[in-house]
Design the sequence.
């Protein structure tokens, strides 16, 4: 009997947890330095680039020396996610990519494969059970959460994840309605709750300009 999507995604979650154990990954210590060290251990080269035209965050190349091209200008959180996403292709899809069965980045053609890479990356960076425990410990309500809950949780959680990541998780955990945060400007809301970041304050900008002159 062929593997169902649900079984495939569960297998990828198990693989993500196994790789976390192999590389002694702790959620609070995940950063670009750690991900680069895993790439080095796996013999996968990272090439930074600035894409033109089509919006591609990262792409895996399986032939020869395996490598990943990643958008140089991505913020750290989505860059970490993109790099771990591509590791799934390296660990799971390399043979199929070499055989021409799959093409990295062809989301419409390989929906099953690409969603699997997202599932893998999400579990590797912030395991479901770990986030559920944090939600409970931080007193986040089990349902009917607001965007403010997401902002406050992001500021306290140990994982290097984006608001996009958290919204998807809150939806999947049924803490918010699917699509309910589509128009929320989380960065603006974050500033309303916690104040303007130091690097955006006029005094900081003024001093920085002085140092440059």
Sequence:
């Amino acid at each position: 009997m062929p593997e169902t999507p649900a079984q495939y995604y569960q297998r990828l979650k198990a693989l993500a947890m196994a790789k976390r154990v192999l590389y002694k990954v702790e959620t609070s210590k995940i950063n670009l330095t750690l991900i680069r060290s895993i790439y080095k251990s796996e013999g996968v080269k990272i090439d930074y680039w600035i894409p033109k035209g089509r919006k591609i965050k990262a792409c895996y190349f399986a032939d020869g020396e395996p490598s990943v091209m990643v958008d140089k200008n991505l913020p750290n959180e989505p860059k970490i996610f993109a790099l771990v996403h591509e590791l799934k292709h390296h660990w799971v899809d390399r043979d199929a990519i070499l055989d021409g069965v799959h093409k990295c980045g062809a989301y419409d053609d390989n929906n099953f494969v690409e969603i699997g890479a997202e599932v893998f990356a999400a579990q590797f960076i912030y395991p479901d059970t770990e986030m559920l425990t944090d939600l409970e410990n931080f007193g986040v309500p089990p349902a009917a959460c607001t965007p403010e809950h997401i902002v406050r949780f992001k500021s306290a959680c140990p994982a290097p994840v984006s608001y996009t990541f958290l919204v998807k998780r809150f939806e999947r955990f049924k803490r918010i309605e699917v699509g309910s945060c589509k128009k929320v400007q989380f960065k603006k809301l974050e500033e309303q709750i916690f104040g303007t970041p130091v690097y955006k304050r006029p005094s900081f900008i003024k001093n920085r300009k002085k140092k440059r002159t």
